[in-house]
Amino acid sequence: MSEVFEVGLVQKDKLKDIMREILMLEKERETIKEDLVRRKEEMCRFFPKNLVGKAIKVFLNKGLTGEQVLDYQTVSDILGIPFACDFYQPNENNNMKSEEKKEMFEVMKAYENLIAERNEVSCEIRDVYCQAKNIGVSVPLLKKAIDFCLHPDKLEIYQESVPLLDTYIDISAEVN
After folding, report:
1. Is the predicted pLDDT of residue 92 greater than 90, yes or no?
2. What is the phi-psi region of residue 154: left when phi exceeds 0, alpha when psi lies from -120 to 50, beta otherwise?
3. How many CB atoms neighbour CB 72 within 10 A?
4. What torsion, rounded to 10 degrees, do the Cα atoms 148, 149, 150, 156 define?
5. DSSP 8-class letter at 67
6. Percent of the chain, pLDDT > 90?
7. d(CA 170, CA 47)
C-alpha cells in the first residue's frame, strides 16, 4: 500500500494524464448513453413502450425467447422484416406509411450506431486502464478514484463511512 503513495513525479504525471483521458472518455460514454435514451423515447412514436426494447432486439438481430414470441411477431410485423420462427410469416399489409417506416428505420439505425460508438469508447477506456496497470497503478483504486470524480456525492458518503471502516479495521487487528 505504501508503494502507491511513494509515486515519483513522472509516474504522477502519467497517472494524471491517464485519469484525464479516462474522465474524458467516461463523459463521452455518458453523452452517448443519454442519446440512446432519447432515441428510445423517439421509438415510442412507432411502438408501444413495452415493445421498444423488443423492437431494438429484433432490429439488431439479437434473438428472442420462447415466452415473447407474440411480441416479437408484432414487432417484426411493424418493421416489415421476416420473423425468426418458421411458423410465422409477417403481414405485408401493415398500416404504417412508407415515410413513417423510413423515419423509424433511421431512428433505429442511429440507435445501432450509438451502440457501436458506445462499445468503441468502452474499449478505449479498457485500453487506458491496461496502460495504467502497465505502469504499476492499482486499477481497482483508479476506478474508485474515477468514480469519485464522476460522482462527487459518492465521495462524501464514502468519507462519512471511513470512521466506521477504521473501527472495523481496529477490531480485526484485535481479533487476529
Report:
1. no
2. alpha
3. 21
4. 40
5. G
6. 24
7. 57
Identify residue 108 by its one-letter amino acid code: M
Q: What is the pLDDT of residues 100-155, one digit of tens each?
A: 778 888 888 899 999 999 999 999 999 999 999 998 888 988 888 888 888 888 77
Predicted confidence at residue 89, as pLDDT, reads: 37
Task: Write phi, then psi, for 82 (nearest 5 degrees).
Answer: -60, 145
Cell 474499449 sits on residue: 123
Question: How many residues are recorded in the chain?
Answer: 176
Q: Cα separation of 130 and 72, whole Å?
A: 40
C-alpha 160, offset from chain centre: 29
Residues 79, 59 contacting (CB under 8 angstroms):
yes
pLDDT at 155: 76
Distance CA 108, CA 30 (A): 19
Which ranges constitute the DSSP H helices of the chain? 2-5, 9-43, 52-59, 69-79, 98-134, 139-150, 152-175
